Amino acid sequence: MVINRVMKKCLAIGWVLFSLWSCGGGADEKPGEVLAFVKPEHFPEPTYTFQNNPITAEGFELGKKLFFDPILSRDKSVSCNNCHQQSRAFADTPLHPTSVGVDNRFGIRNAPSIANMAFMKEFFWDGAVTHLDFVPINAIESDVEMDESLENVVKKLNASEAYRTKFKTAFGTEEATAPYLLHALSQFTAMMISADSKYDKYLQGQEELTANESRGLALFEQKCSSCHAGVLFTDQSYRNNGISSDFGDKGRGLITEDEADEGKFKVPSLRNAGITAPYMHNAKFSTLEEVLEHYGNGMVDSPTLDPSFKNGEVVVGIPMTKEEQGDIIEFIHTLTDYTFISDERFRNNE
Amino acid sequence: MKISKILALLALIVTIMSCENDEPQPEEFGTFQLYFDNKVGASELTLSEPGSTNYNYETTNGEKFNLSRFGYYVSKIKLEGPNGELYEDEVSVSASESKGYYQILESVASSHNVMLENVPAGSYSKVTFTIGVAEDGVQEGALGGVLDPAKGAWFWNWNAGYIGMAIEGTAENSAQQYVDWGNGTETKEKTFAVHVGGWKDVTDNENFVNNVRTRTLDFGTTVSVSEELSPNAHVVTDVLKLLDGVNIDFSSTYSVHAPKAGKPFADQLANAFVVHHVHQSSNGHGH
Questions:
Q1: Which 8-state DSSP code applies to residue A138?
Q2: Closest Cα of chain A to B253: distance in Å?
Q3: Residue B150: which of A17, A22, A151 has the nearest Cβ?
Q4: Which member of A14, A153, A183 has the closest CB to residue B14?
Q5: How many angstroms separate the CA of residue A198 from the nearest CA in chain B?
Q6: Does A19 lie in the same domain as A154?
Q7: Which of A86, A349, B5, B167 has the most CB within a 10 Å radius?
Q8: What is the C-alpha separation between B176 and B163, in angstroms, rounded?
Q9: pTM recorded for the entire structure
Q10: Is residue B241 assigned to a domain?
């Protein structure tokens, strides 16, 4: 009996080892698979389909080159980096409350930070996109962003000897194609992990929070973390937090085609919120003080306002003293990840 | 037995066993062809230029129209026979190909034929396939082949996913006005576009519609596949059944670009596809 069990185990282990080698055939080996996606210990499992697009140094470098290259826009004036800047944790600058694209046309939404995208289930303020690979199609083809067709971008890339070579070394393809273009961009953005803020160090027992920050954390957990939940600081749901009752931008309602979802937007992560002003999908607030004042006293009622902000028919928001608001803001600043915003790997070095 | 001996033995067994699945089974295989014949009632489908006022078709309600584009995605093709015969077309997707996904386009004659290879010999009496691209085709990320948006795949980027079926044309009663989109594209007057998409199953929101449909069509007879016998099933897709089925009124329904509006059309897909006949041998289909 005992031997039998041991043998079974041996067989199982042997099986794994041998099937790894003996049938490999080298077919799925990608050149230079060295750069690795490493999940921070305290983070959830990533949602990104790395099995279809394993990170490689070459793929990442190509994605990086594309990210900073205005070749992706119609008039070669706008790159991803125009709206997603490293010093802002890859959100837009406060100079562009809602993003500015080709011909200085204004978008209707505020460009969010794109840190920790590998852990998100859906993308954009309304969850329009369900896979990270598809996000750039919107940026490239939206007439308020880069105003270019994916087909034409691929044509432009193939006209460049340098790009053809890079696609070949990264993916082994003779020509640039849209799926590999999207894979390269995803490799670059999926690697943008922000998990080394003061708060993370505190979680790992490496740093202490100040008295104010600790009070802020406790208040945050009490008042905010029902939505800004977990280490990603979002439960990834769609809610109306009372910033408006005029749903010119229907938000989640656009996607579900349901009135009950109009005015709801994705709960954003608050990681790096200290440096990603302005705030909300429509950039309504330019400081965290204004945001906290909004939750405390500024909430607008509407049929889809989150019920947690109401007491019966009365809008109560989140009652807080000024002092409590200040403590929460101090806590939010502990989510700024200086390692991330100075990480050389994401810096434009051309 | 010494551990080393056990290991050596195991090594032997495992190497022998682990590649076994790659060896072809000593069975007989043949091919099976599906021919998708798009029609408008009894008439052949001929495409017109967008905006053309030559209305060569009419719905049962008297709505005059023509078609400028018609097509759909088919995937997960399965053949079954009376004695448990089963063939499932391989579905395998990556950034370089989308095996098992077919975009049937009226404008591309070669796309009307789907050749199924390596079908186990036997008799078959029905075919099953999916119309549209289901969740497992969307959530793998960027894919090549007929799902590559830069190579003609019908991708919705405002609500990520693929359009499963597109019906476009011009109708006498369409209320569509001329639009110049300013980037070299325009929408002609009186045109209509029905794009049936939407793949999400969300149980707590009935407005969230999944318009992907799976159809099983009986041949009404059996056909045999062998090394020598390559049968052919002639599937007719009838646009008129779709338009009549929703009682189309082009004055109000001329621009369908969201899952909810596409649902009535998706609900007609069950009626729009029929196996018209099967040929036992497929030495050139007479068209």
A1: H
A2: 17
A3: A151
A4: A14
A5: 34
A6: yes
A7: B167
A8: 21
A9: 0.88
A10: yes
ipTM here: 0.85
Chain A positions touching B6 (Cβ under 8 A) are 7, 10
In this structure, the answer to whether residues A79 and A168 fall within a common structural domain is yes
Q: Kindly state whether residues A120 and A71 are assigned to the same domain.
A: yes
pLDDT one-digit tens code per residue, A143-191:
655 667 899 999 999 999 999 999 999 999 999 999 999 999 999 999 9
Determine, for residues A52 and B140 on separate chains, whether the beta-carbon distance falls below 8 Å: yes
How many domains does the structure of chain B reveal?
1
Check CB contact of A47 with chain B, cutoff 8 Å.
no
Cα atoms in the 13 Å half-sphere on the side-chain side of A73:
24
The secondary structure element, H or E, covering residue B14 is helix B3-18
Domain that includes residue B171, residue range: 28-279
Same domain, A269 and A316: yes
Instruction: Verify whether the Cβ–Cβ distance B95 to A53 is below 8 Å.
Output: yes
Shortest CB distance from A11 goes to which of B10, B151, B159?
A: B10
Q: How far apart are the first and last CA of chain A?
A: 65
Q: Which residues pair with B86 in a beta bridge?
A: B80
Contacts of A256 in chain B (CB under 8 A): 202, 205, 207-208
Look-up of token digits 């656009």: A254
User: In Å, how far is A145's CA from the nearest CA of chain B?
Assistant: 13
- Would the CB atoms of B7 and A150 count as touching at under 8 Å? no
The residue type of A52 is: N
CA of A186 to nearest chain B CA: how many angstroms apart? 10
Both tokens assigned to A231: 């280490």
Whether A238 and A96 map to the same domain: the answer is: no
Task: Please say which residue of A194, A227, A247 terminates a domain.
Answer: A194
**Boundaries of domain holding A273:** 198-338
Binding-site residues of A, please? 80, 83-84, 224, 227-228
Does B18 contact A at CB distance below 8 Å? yes
Quick one: A161 and A12 in the same domain? yes
Binding residues of A for heme c: 80, 83-84, 224, 227-228
User: Considering the domain boundaries, does residue B173 fall inside one?
Assistant: yes
- The number of domains in chain A is 2
> Does B104 map to a domain?
yes
Instruction: Name which of B18, B149, B259 is nearest A15 (Cβ-Cβ).
Output: B18
Q: Return the half-sphere exposure (C-beta side, CA atoms, 13 A cut-off) of residue B262.
A: 27
Distance CA B199, CA B131 (A): 11
Which residues are paired to B155 by β-bridges?
B162
Cβ atoms of B202 and A237 closer than 8 Å: no
Tell me the per-residue pLDDT of B133-164, one tens digit each, with 9 for 90 and over: 999 999 999 999 999 999 999 998 888 999 99
Per-residue pLDDT of chain A (350 residues; tens, 9 = 90+): 333 433 343 334 333 333 333 333 333 444 444 589 999 999 999 999 999 999 999 999 999 999 999 988 877 778 999 999 999 999 987 766 666 555 444 467 899 999 999 999 999 999 999 999 999 998 888 665 566 789 999 999 999 999 999 999 999 999 999 999 999 999 999 999 999 999 999 999 999 999 999 999 999 999 999 999 999 999 999 999 999 999 989 999 999 999 999 999 999 999 999 999 999 999 999 999 999 999 999 999 999 999 999 999 999 999 999 999 999 999 999 999 999 999 999 998 77
Whether A350 is covered by a domain: the verdict is no
Choose the closest CB to A256 out of B96, B183, B207: B207
Taking CB atoms and an 8 Å cutoff, what residues of chain B touch A133? 141-142
Closest-CA residue in chain A for B202?
Answer: A256
Instruction: Count Cβ neighbours within 10 Å for each residue of A15-28 and write b for 16 or more, e otherwise.
Output: eeebbeeeeeeeee
Closest chain A residue to B259 measured between Cα atoms? A257
Of residues A296, A282, A350, the one with CA closest to residue A125: A282
* Contacts B15 to A, Cβ<8 Å: 18, 22
